[in-house]
């Protein structure tokens, strides 16, 4: 199952303006669709049709630290692509499950811990620490 999406020019312009208004603060972007970047072959076929246009906006803004979507980890131009479990619908139960992720943010990065609705699932309690670019 491949579901594509777009951000579009209007939202990209809004995002650029919003990010420029907060240059002194690290930014984390949370979105529904994954970018087709970062070398994640599981998600690359779907995702944002205008991924490159998004990265043209966020890649140059060094205070953007992460883009959060589904459950895997990738990186593109120094920006972490953090994927978390679905909260409701799972397209392929053999590859995913439902759950949530907690994030412990620090000045130098983030530690993400996966919590699954099935406490016996192998992802439950798994943690990963990432360091921000420029930190």
UniProtKB/TrEMBL annotation:
Phylogenetic lineage: Bacteria, Pseudomonadati, Planctomycetota, Planctomycetia, Planctomycetales
The protein's name: Cyclic 3',5'-adenosine monophosphate phosphodiesterase
């Amino acid at each position: 199952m491949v579901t594509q999406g777009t951000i579009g020019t209007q939202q990209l312009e809004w995002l650029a303006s919003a990010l420029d208004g907060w240059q002194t603060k690290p930014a984390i972007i949370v979105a529904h669709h994954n970018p087709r970047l970062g070398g994640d072959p599981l998600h690359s076929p779907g995702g944002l049709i205008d991924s490159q246009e998004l990265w043209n906006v966020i890649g140059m803004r060094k205070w953007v630290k992460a883009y959060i979507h589904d459950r895997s980890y990738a990186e593109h131009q120094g920006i972490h692509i953090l994927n978390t479990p679905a909260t409701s619908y799972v397209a392929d139960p053999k590859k995913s499950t439902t759950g949530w992720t907690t994030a412990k943010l620090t000045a130098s990065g983030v530690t993400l811990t996966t919590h699954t609705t099935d406490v016996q699932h192998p992802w439950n309690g798994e943690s990963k620490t990432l360091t921000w670019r420029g930190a």
